[in-house]
Amino acid sequence: MQEPTPHIAATLKTLRAAQGWSLDRASHVTGVSKAMLGQIERGESSPTVATLWKISGGFRVSFSLFFDQASIQGAPPDNAATAVLEDAAAGMTVTPLFAFDPDLCFEMFLIELAPGACSESSPHEPGVVEHVVVLEGALDLGLDGTWNTLSTGEARRFAADREHGYRNLGDRVVRFHDVIHYPST
Question: Which of the listed CATH numbers 3.30.360.10, 2.120.10.30, 1.25.40.10, 2.60.120.10 matches domain 78-181?
Answer without folding.
Answer: 2.60.120.10
